[in-house]
Design goal:
- By secondary structure, the chain is of the alpha+beta class.
- It folds into 3 domains: 90 residues; 194 residues, no CATH class; 129 residues, no CATH class.
- Helices cover 30% and strands 34% of the residues.
- A hairpin with a 2-residue loop joins strand 6 and strand 7.
- The longest helix is centred in the N-terminal third of the chain and has 46 residues.
- The two termini are 64 Å apart.
């Protein structure tokens, strides 16, 4: 490794010296022509003057021809650039978005991710690229996966097509950000395509500028470390790839570090470095400190089309703080669903009168093939009506990401139903309207 790094440095110095020499040679050539031209002009003999005049005219003619050729070459170069730009422009993917500005190719993926985080691996439609996310849900210990995972839609590769980044929220950070992607998608021919996919034994870290480090394992003896970047077409391209392997097949006491730039786990396509295992470990550690965070949107801010009712009419039932209710509302009703040590008070005020207000205990029953979520509902409380001078405080429990509490009521002659859930990010109550 040390030799290779020195070799690369020497190559850079050599390239710089060649570039400097090239500039110097060009300058010398121009200076020499100027001197020759001066010698031609300064001559006293008539015949020499005539000869030199002819030579001068010849040189001028050559210069004009050279200038013409140069202009022609420049013109061709400009035309070539224009054609290349035109090709790139015509080949750029046209991305169709929905009413929320989300590329339509990504909507089914985001829907599946949301359902996976809410309802587990048995109740969502499997999508290519979500191996790492499935592992998290199966083996993780988060109480609220909707807050632990987020997404971002951004043109990382710089080709005009936005990528979809899905990653784990940075632990210990006060911001919604991520440095470890589970998966990154791009769009080709109108369809979402996996650019990068990580899981427990194939970990990617974001380094900024569309670059990533990768560490992986095929067992105790076999590890990999790679550096990659997203190319202009959204494909993952390898810059450096290192892996451990026995120098002699079957001799596990003599492990070598191999290197290539193709990303292939193959001794035949790699070269054996002089790097020690300790140096290999230090190399990986050095990149661990270089990872950068990307701003993400937690999935609790996202709602699938199968959950949300298309109702542009805002509801007059508002969640309000208990302090506000106690200080400003004259008539307050209180209902406790079930006595325990983990109750959370949720306060409602009413900007419009409502009728037939019900409180439900919800249990996930099914998620069908179209993504529609079905709850088993049990009415726990029922109020005939509430007017604008009243408030309701519900004491309920939020055991996890899947909603277990719901409310329904009739407002302006329309029956509406909502689930209630607790944000693991800031503790706020999320009220999501669903179909009956």
């Amino acid at each position: 490794m040390k030799k290779k790094m020195l070799g690369a440095g020497a190559a850079i110095m050599l390239a710089a010296s060649v570039m400097m020499a090239g500039c110097g040679e060009t300058g010398t050539a121009k200076e020499s022509t100027s001197v020759d031209s001066g010698n031609i002009i300064v001559s006293s003999a008539e015949t020499t003057q005539e000869s030199n005049s002819r030579e001068s005219q010849s040189e001028e003619s050559k210069t004009e021809e050279s200038t013409g050729e140069s202009q022609t070459e420049e013109s061709k170069t400009e035309e070539s650039k224009s054609e290349e730009a035109s090709k790139q422009e015509s080949s750029q993917e046209e991305v169709e978005t929905d009413e929320n500005g989300i590329p339509k190719a990504y909507v089914p993926i985001l829907d599946s991710c949301y359902n996976l985080l809410c309802y587990g691996v048995d109740n969502y439609e499997s999508v290519e690229g979500l191996t790492g996310l499935e592992e998290l849900v199966l083996w993780g210990t988060f109480q609220d996966y909707l807050s632990a995972v987020g997404y971002q839609i951004e043109d990382l590769s710089g080709d005009g097509v936005p990528e979809l980044y899905i990653g784990e929220r940075e632990l210990g950070s006060a911001k919604d950000e991520s440095s470890s992607p589970f998966v990154i998608y791009t769009i080709k021919d109108g369809k979402a395509v996996v650019s990068l996919e990580g899981w427990s034994r194939n970990y990617f870290a974001y380094l900024g500028n569309a670059s990533f480090s990768n560490t992986g394992s095929n067992g105790a003896m076999y590890t990999v470390f790679g550096l990659y970047h997203l190319g202009k077409n959204g494909d993952l391209e390898c810059d450096d790839f290192y892996f451990t392997y026995e120098k002699t097949e079957g001799n596990f006491e003599d492990i070598g570090i191999y290197h290539n730039t193709t990303g292939e786990y193959s001794k035949d396509q790699s070269e054996l470095t002089e790097m020690t295992l300790e140096e290999y470990g230090l190399l990986m550690e050095s990149y661990a400190s270089k990872k950068q965070c990307m701003e993400i949107r937690p999935f609790y801010t996202y709602a699938t089309e199968s959950q949300i009712v298309d109702n542009s009419q805002p509801t007059g039932v508002k969640i309000q703080s208990i302090q506000y209710i106690e200080e400003n509302v004259e008539f307050v009703n209180t209902y406790t669903m079930q006595e325990n040590d983990y109750l959370t008070p949720v306060g409602f005020v009413f900007e419009n009168p409502v009728q037939d207000f019900k409180v439900y205990s919800l249990e996930l029953e099914n998620v069908d093939e179209d993504g529609y979520i079905q709850f088993k509902k049990e009415v726990m409380g029922n109020y005939e009506k509430f007017d604008t001078s009243e408030a309701l405080i519900l004491n309920v429990t939020f055991p996890g990401s899947i909603p277990t509490v719901g409310i329904s009521y009739i407002e302006n002659g329309v029956e509406r139903m909502f689930t209630l859930s607790l944000s693991g990010y800031d503790g706020s109550i999320i009220m999501t309207e669903i179909a009956q």
